[in-house]
Amino acid sequence: MSFLRSRFLQAVVVFVGAFVVLRFGIRPPAPWSVITLYMAIVAMALLIFVSSDRDSWASFVRPIWATLTEPRYRIVRAVVVVGLPLLLGYYAYTQAAARPQAPPELRAVHPAPPDSIQFRGKDFNISGAENPLRKDPDAFARHVAAGGAIYVRNCMFCHGDNLDGQGHFAHGFNPPPANFQDPGTIAMLQEAYLFWRIAKGGPGLPKESTPWNSVMPAWEDRLTEEQIWQVIMYLYAATGQQPRRWEATH
Amino acid sequence: MKRLTPRRACVVALVLFGALLALSALPAGAQEAAKEPAYREFPYIGSRLAVWAVAQLHLNFAAFILGVPIFAVIIEIIGWRTSDARYDWLSHEFVKLTFAAFSTTALLGALLLFLFVGYYPRFWGYMTSVFFPTYWVYALLFFAETFTVYLWYYGWDWLSGSRKWIHVGLGVLSNLFGTAILFVANSWVTFMMSPAGVNEAGAVTGGVWAAINNFTWMPINIHRLIANIVFGGTIAGAYAAFRFLSATTDEERARYDWMGYVGNFVALSAFIVLPFAGYWLGREIYAFNQTMGITMMGGFMSWLWIIQAILIGILFLGSNYYLWLGMERIPGAERYRKYVPPMLIVLTIGFMVWATPRSMVVTLDEARAMGGTHHPLLGFLGVMSAKNTVVNLMILTTFLSYILYRRANKVSTRPWVKTGMALQWAALGLAAVVVVFYGVYGYFVESIVRIGFSVYQVLAVLAAIVLVMAIDVPMFKGASSTGTIRWGTIAPRSQYVLILLAVTFTWLMGLMGFARSGIRQHWHVYGILRDTSPDAVTPALGYASNVITVVTLAFFALVMFIFWLGGLGEKGKAGAHAHAAPVLAGGSDTDR
């Protein structure tokens, strides 16, 4: 079993093992873009490992050198010389060939809000804005209930009755509707941010990072200011998330 | 090199004099601004690209000449107090590098000023109306800095022996002037991001100090000060690597191996605290303006952070790799080789977590399988709780690498060595537990609380580093040696790592500088002075990356040329050099 002590073989085994774990051990499957990134890091780490001392590096290089120079490995050499370019060519083909689906897109995590918006003809300053309905704790349950009713009437069809972005229409959209249960969505944002997104919808998204492909309507024409704040309160109450608070400024 | 002195001095003095003259004319120019066009078009490449490229080149050189003297004077002080000539030689070598790049920095600075005055007259007129008093301070500081560094460099022999304290004082003084220059220039840059002391129409209301002391001024001061040290260390390391690889004798190889090690050590020491300063800056940007913060971290600049994660991962892996390779030239270091695989695993997993995007590049099928662009499992690795946790663990691991390197050829003779080691491991382990605990707990609390957890994580890591060093220093004082370090026998690939670190850091500086500047979007001065030029669009990330790559290449081409010029002065008189290079043990197994 001395061949198992070969650094080259160890590196190959770890590389293949890492690929198997990343490709098949993560559910749902990780996107190829992420797997490629991870495998590049694994390859880098393996190269560092095998070359971090002289003996290890010699052990790693030995079989490669032998394959390239020694007559007894002529057949292996021929297979490598032919097979490697073919594999690379196949990879290039898979990357370049046209497919019957839209190519992957870079998407921004959160669109940046403007400092202020016009809401039904009046200026609304988003930076630093608080939800005015939270000033009266006694009315909290009433506002949440009203927000729930508004959500069911208007939002549930896309964002789902579990607020997880799995509504009836969700499968027709790319990108899918926001999943409010995800701690990376509304929990990261101030309520004023949600107010802007709901009021202005897809048409109000910033010009950068386009195309957003958002089908979110601009609700300012259908909901009042109070109703928007109510539905925001419902989103946080129903998911158990806390809105992000404004940091103290100096 | 010394024969060129008057000419070089004249060039710098003339450039500064010209800049001062131009500055003195600016108030009158500002009055005429209404008659002037707001912009002029730079031929072929456009004004923005011209300013961008020159500003970045100027910043790279400025960072180098401000960063290197900081550790050069510390090394000189070590040499002075220990009477070890090696350190004095090394400090002199470092200052020589700074000196060679000094006039280029001034020339690029003057060129940048001319570009602003010529192509962005309205913008420059406005900046002048706010910051004019600081221009004089800046110019005077530059004079003071220039002459102090000249005196520091040329007075090395004259101010030796009993007058060494004066020489060291000059080094300290030049650093103080340099830092003050940095702070003044930062006030202009940060005012553009987070203006203060002016009303919504841009009129000055709070005085020049209010404009200087704006929201992001001090975070950038600290961030750049630390980054300059890292940058200076990596460039000095790359220079040493270049000299190592082109060396023809064992003595020369040994010298430059040591110099490369010190450069990397300096870079690594400062690099360890750099993420904390960067995080503070990010928080302040968020606190100043949510739009800016979201544009930077969650909006269209967010993909730059994935590139940043990859580059910083390379810096961590590269720095550790260099230390591990360096242990091969230390007799006795074999004892610690067993720690390399686990440390590498921590660094690799940390790298993977840090590079995991929050919003992934996915096909429609992949998005549907995941239920969105956020992966239900990997998505947790895309937020700051995970990132802060792994970066702190990577810092701890890197510190452990350094500790093992430090003691590689030492055997402590203290009777309490076992207790000391146990305490050290406990401190590192406890810090790791605190970091992981707050990292995981961060998922269960609201954002504002989670952000505060990063402070506890940082404090735990810093406390562990201080405690481990406080034990390590007395524990290995007077330790028995397992052999002398064989300087010069390190594997040549280690030197390419040093060059890689310098290139990576330069590229990283350019990219993140673009992020910091680009979040102003279509504003020269955010919310105050709108960019109405044809270049008001924020460049696409790919375009920006290409520009930064070309600037980085240009910077290294210029650096190589300048270092080559510096080397010309040494040719033929190595033996007669006033600072004869010390002989270091190395090149063979025989201790010398």
Please characterize this protein's 3D structure.
The complex is a heterodimer of chains A (250) and B (592). With 250 residues, chain A is mainly α. Chain A has 2 domains: 95 residues, no CATH class; 124 residues, Orthogonal Bundle (Cytochrome Bc1 Complex, Chain D, domain 2). Chain A has 8 helices and 2 strands, in the order H-H-H-H-E-E-H-H-H-H. Chain A has a two-stranded antiparallel ribbon. In chain A, a hairpin with a 2-residue loop joins strand 1 and strand 2. The N and C termini of chain A lie far apart (67 Å). The mean pLDDT of chain A is 89. Chain B is an all-alpha fold and 592 residues long. A two-stranded antiparallel sheet of chain B has the order 1-2. Chain B has a two-stranded antiparallel ribbon with strand order 3-4. In chain B, helix 4 runs antiparallel to helix 5. The C terminus of chain B is likely disordered. The interface between A and B is large, with 68 and 72 residues.
Could you list some keywords that capture this structure?
heterodimer, A: 250 residues, mainly alpha, Cytochrome Bc1 Complex, Chain D, domain 2, 2 domains, two-stranded antiparallel sheet, B: 592 residues, two-stranded antiparallel ribbon, 18 helices, 4 strands
Provide a quick synopsis of the model.
The complex is a heterodimer of chains A (250) and B (592). With 250 residues, chain A is mostly helical.
pLDDT < 50 stretches of chain B: 574-578, 587-592
Give the C-alpha Rg of chain A: 27 Å
Which structural class matches the secondary elements of chain B?
mainly alpha
Strand coverage percent of chain B = under 5%
Radius of gyration of chain B: 25 Å
- Main sheet specs of chain B: 2 strands, antiparallel
The number of helical elements of chain A comes to 8
What quaternary form is this?
heterodimer
Order of strands in the sheet with most strands of chain A: 1-2
Which class of secondary structure composition applies to the elements of chain A? Answer: mainly alpha
Helix content of chain A: 40-55%
What series of H and E elements makes up the topology of chain B? HHHHHHHHHHHHHHEHHEHEEH
Q: What spatial form of chain A do the alpha-carbon principal axes imply?
A: elongated
